[in-house]
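Folded chain entry
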Amino acid sequence: MATTTENYGLKKPLTTDYYDVEVQNENMDRIDQALKGNMDRVEGESLVRDAADTALGNLISNEAAARSAADSALLAVATTSANGLMSAADKAKLNGIATGANNYIHPTTAGNKHIPAGGSTDQILGYSADGIATWIPQLAAKVLLSASTGNLFGATTVDAALALAPPKKNIVVITTSGTWIPPRANMLIDIFMISGGGGGGGDTGVGGGGGYAKHIKDYRITSTAPIPLTIGAGGAAGASNGNGGNGGVTMFGTLSTLSGGEGGYWRAPSYPYGGNGGAAGGIGGMSSGNSGANGASGLGGNSQVIYRAAGGGGTNANLQGGIGIYDGTTGGYCLLNGILYGGGGGGGATSTGSAGLGGEGGGGNGGTTGVNGQNATQRGAGGGGGGSGAAGGVGMPGIIVIAY
């Protein structure tokens, strides 16, 4: 019986066997298949080796390119946004910087000092010492523009210097109590204020007196703190058997009109005088035929503050209320806005007479028989007296006018 080879299993005939073609062909087929398998494995290994060689080549190429790019970046001149090598120009500039140049100390000699801390609206820098400035009011005493003479166009005080400012163009009219906040500190303002007018008396009543006026020029404001304001109330109307109420005081901060218009009496035949206008207003005329007197000159004053009387109230029998007078000028006339305030009220009519007209500046007319006196129609004016059997008219509240 034939044996086989160890590796490929080829049949080995015995020496006693006859030659067999089929055995020979079978062995040849086995050899062919073995050779073909070896060839396939060799070709596969070659493909793998080629792929590995290609991949390795690509890796080496990429690594070289990356190294080249990195080297180029490191060798490039530095910019403000990327690291790099120092250029020759940068090196020359660096060599030109002195040793210790980063230890800079700003000089403190005259001409090198910084602007001092602080400062506020309407302050400027002024001289303090050689090379030293300090914050000062915009217009300081003896002003700074003429150091040799200590004056500004002849003004040697702060108020005098401020008075040289352009005319005041801003007008503020205040009719209710509260506060006023100055637009800036260190300024001069003009003020007109008048107290409330008195109410008219009832039953053939006397007209109420006009309010007391006060004019203040170049009043100094030192800060922007709110300033309290009080508008004097108008005097109440007298009942058909009562006197009219007095007007209230008007105040600007601590400044005051001192008193309000006096209320008119009722039953004028028993009280033949009209109500006084403010503290110094003229009294109303006698029932014998005079109208309410104009207010006498004010209580006095100076170049800055002028006290002006208001109009007195008229009595009955067609008697008209008066207006305040000061040095030939109507006391209730406001120079700041051109309006006349504070007229006295007209007297009320008897059962056989005619009612008096209210004084210029909004004084209320007197009432006819059975008709109430007219309410005042302008700030600070007095109400009209009531006609026979009727009530008086209401006085008008005061007012404050400011110019700056």
Remarks:
- The longest strand covers residues 213-221.
